[in-house]
Write a structure and sequence with these properties.
Layout (H helix, E strand, L loop, with lengths): L12 E2 L2 E2 L10 H7 L1 H19 L26 H8 L1 H20 L2 H16 L4 H8 L1 H15 L1
Antiparallel strand pairs: 1-2
């Protein structure tokens, strides 16, 4: 009988002997890159896309804080928030903001309920007539397909 119960012993100690777990050999970053080169080549087009078309254009935001002149370029004089102060003090800016809010509210009022009303009326028509649900879908799409067809005929003729 041993003084240490093997079933309750931890993985690093067994009796008085200290056993260290075997660790895999250390690999350098370059070895890992070489090992995963095929996967990295597959990821490269996506990374290039985001760098070229998402991050590089962010550098152009600097001109918002400059008195930008195209002939001088990015060496234009720095003016800080003066451009934004001028924009907020302009009456046309506030007219544009109020127009935007008004259009958004009108879209909520008029465009949001329209599909719901169409669905409810189609359900009532289907319940009270001999029309099949497929024919109701076709009738609802007549306006869309008709305008596309007339536009294509107009271009070809």
């Amino acid at each position: 009988m041993s003084a240490v119960d093997v079933k309750q012993a931890t993985a690093t100690t067994l009796g008085r002997a200290h056993v260290r777990p075997i660790s895999p050999p250390k690999t350098s970053v370059w070895q890992q890159i070489w090992r995963d080169r095929v996967m990295l080549l597959f990821v490269l087009p996506g990374v290039l896309y985001f760098v070229l078309f998402r991050y590089v254009p962010l550098l152009g935001n600097v001109i918002a804080f400059e008195d930008y002149l195209p002939f001088i370029g990015f060496e234009s004089p720095f003016v800080g928030f003066a451009n934004f102060q001028g924009m907020v003090q302009d009456a046309a800016f506030w007219q544009a903001v109020s127009n935007t809010i008004l259009i958004a509210l009108m879209q909520l009022v008029f465009y949001f309920p329209a599909p719901i009303c169409l669905a409810l009326s189609a359900a009532q028509i289907a319940a009270n007539s001999r029309l099949t649900p497929g024919s109701l879908k076709r009738l609802a799409m007549v306006g869309n397909t008709g305008s596309c067809a007339s536009g294509s005929l107009e271009r070809s003729g």
